Amino acid sequence: MEDQKTVTCPLCFTKVRWRSVVCLGCQATIEYGVPASRYWLAFGVCAYFGGFLGQYFSGIFLIIPFLIAFAAFAYLCYWLGEIYADRVYFQRYQ
Ligand SMILES: [Zn+2]
User: Fold this and answer.
1) What would the pLDDT profile of 49-61 be if each residue is shown by its tens digit?
2) Half-sphere exposure of 3 (CA within 13 A, CB side)
3) Alpha-carbon span 56 to 1, nearest angstrom
């Protein structure tokens, strides 16, 4: 069952229920899936790529590099989702 799934905190070794947002043992915050920084990285790469292609188009044709960059970004997001599907991050502040 998905609800019974647990994950062990790497900082204090407490077993935490899957989808909990805070570790009960050490108060570390838990993040699931793709880290936001990866989306920003993908966005940056695609924006740069779109800008690069944009040099070769003008006027209404600028929609072409825009669409290519957008499609590349959508693909990267999907790809990141696949890679990070089972990733869990524990982060303790202070
Ligand atoms: Zn912990």
Assistant:
1) 999 999 999 999 9
2) 0
3) 53
Beta bridge partners of 17: 6
Expressed in angstroms and rounded, the spacing between residue 92 Cα and the centre of ligand 1 is: 8
CA dist 81 and 93 (Å) reads: 26
Q: What pLDDT is stored for residue 29 in this prediction?
A: 95
Mean pLDDT, residues 58-80 taken together: 96
Each domain of the chain, given as residue ranges in start order, spans 2-91
3-state DSSP call for residue 71? helix
Please give the distance, rounded to the nearest whole angstrom, from the Cα atom of residue 81 to the centre of ligand 1: 25
Distance (Å) from CA 17 to ligand 1 centroid: 12
Are 25 and 14 a contacting pair, CB within 8 Å?
yes
Report pLDDT digits (tens) over 10-21: 999 999 998 899
